[in-house]
Design brief:
Blueprint: E1 5-11, H1 15-26, E2 34-40, H2 46-50, E3 57-62, H3 67-77, E4 82-85, E5 91-92, H4 96-106, E6 112-120, E7 126-131, H5 142-145, E8 156-159, H6 177-186, E9 191-202, H7 212-228, H8 230-233, H9 237-253, H10 257-270, H11 275-286, H12 289-292, H13 295-300
Parallel strand pairs: 1-2, 1-4, 2-3, 6-9
Antiparallel strand pairs: 4-8, 5-9, 6-7, 6-8
Helix pairs in contact: 9-10, 9-11, 10-11
Length: 308
Amino acid sequence: MAATVGLIIPTYNRAEMLGQAIESVLAQSRVPDEIIVVDDGSTDGTWELLQGYPPPVYAFRQRNRGRSNARNEGIERCGADFVCFLDSDDLLVPGSVEARVRWLEANPDHGVVYGQVAYADAAGRPIPGELATGPCLRGNIFPALAKYNTIPILAIMIRRDCLPEPPYFDEKLEKWEDWDFLLRVASRCKFGCLDEIVGLYRQHSGMTIGRGAAVEESTMTVQERIYRVDAFLSLPAASRARIYGSHALGRLRAGHVRRARECLLRGMREVPWYLPLYVIWALSLIGPGAADAVVKLWRMAGWAGRSR
């Protein structure tokens, strides 16, 4: 029997873009069996728009509880074998669902597959240049993903039995709930990667972007969770040092010198001779702005890139 597919769209006051997102799913060569749209308390006509869509679009309405809660509600209502996600301001490209389904069916030992995501303008026109996804990661991607997230949530398709324990997305996180979700998945399942574009990440003035101290606290929360899980503790000391170094650089660039140095000291305890940690320490003496000047070198050297 062919695997069933469910796609979950959380939405809040995006009536002007939601229809385009849904149409990009309905236009797929392999239309999902369930397109579950969770209206998170919209007041702009979103619910009325959704009434015009018959199955396989299934719409549900709730009071405003946030994006993570809406995604969690969608997962709970989804009974499909394979699950994927799309935010209501983003788009799938033709063939996106079919390509990911085909890959998972051909690779039963992998729990997740993801493809490339391109940036697009507000009208959905692809923007030439850098992709929203990083270099392809395959197999056990936890060591690389623990450094920083390079996989937008719309890029993935996951087997139901690889979903983490509920709540799937942490509703207390202001930001990085998708990174936290992917880390929990990566700690238990192997990932595959397609070199083709599967979705468009639209850039527009109404994007939901977390701000200030709450975002910083979310970053620290996810990073501290990384340091406690078995998938991290079982890594070689050199891999743990690289992760600490990547986090330290991010903290320094954000202006948090003390927190960056705390991370560096952790890394130095793992591998006292790891040179990049001392480079970042020297940058912390100059000031946070100096870190930006070496990020290209940092990534080119592979210190914050894929695991080894």
